[in-house]
Design goal:
Order of helices and strands: EEEEEHEEEEH
Strand order of the largest sheet: 3-4-5-9-8-7-6
Helix content: 25-40%
Strand content: over 45%
CATH superfamily: Mog1/PsbP, alpha/beta/alpha sandwich
CATH class: Alpha Beta
CATH architecture: 3-Layer(aba) Sandwich
Number of domains: 1
Structural class: alpha+beta
Radius of gyration: 14 Å
Shape: globular
CATH topology: Protein Transport Mog1p, Chain A
């Protein structure tokens, strides 16, 4: 079964055995994450309609670069449910583990959304389809709204 999150004007389904945490529910930007049982995560941040999503992506990259050694990234685009997104694929070491993270940005009418998913390299590869399914569901629900 899947659990459903519905808040901040967005909605998405996620595996019911994942833990939901609303990190920022009162101020903009607003953010919620779902964590796998092994601590990989998928995060969505909803920005106000006057936000510049390219600046938001750059801020994520800058923060990651300042936090982690051997940080590498590449700009990319990807399509989710017919919505073209832009963002970055990132790789870095944390506690001697190679970690993959991806950030994607897209707009739905008035909603400006940044999605990020991250996990240890092997786990990320194993969960990539789950991350993609959560993102596709978010996009599908927003497009229908």
């Amino acid at each position: 079964m899947a659990a459903v999150y519905d808040n901040f004007g967005i909605s998405f389904s996620y595996p019911e055995n994942w833990k939901l945490v609303e990190e920022q529910a009162q101020e903009w930007p607003r953010s919620a994450s779902v964590y796998s049982p092994s601590d990989a995560f998928w995060n969505v941040t909803v920005h106000p309609d006057d936000a510049d999503l390219r600046e938001a992506v750059d801020a994520v990259v800058t923060a990651m670069d300042e936090t982690y050694d051997d940080f590498e990234y590449e700009a990319t685009t990807e399509t989710f449910a017919d919505y073209e997104t832009f963002g970055c694929n990132m790789h870095f070491y944390c506690l001697d583990m190679l970690v993959q993270a991806q950030v994607r940005a897209f707009e739905f009418g008035d909603a400006k959304v940044l999605v990020m998913f991250q996990g240890e390299d092997r786990e990320f590869d194993r969960l990539r389809q789950v991350f993609s399914a959560i993102t596709h569901d978010l996009v599908r629900r927003q497009a229908a709204a």
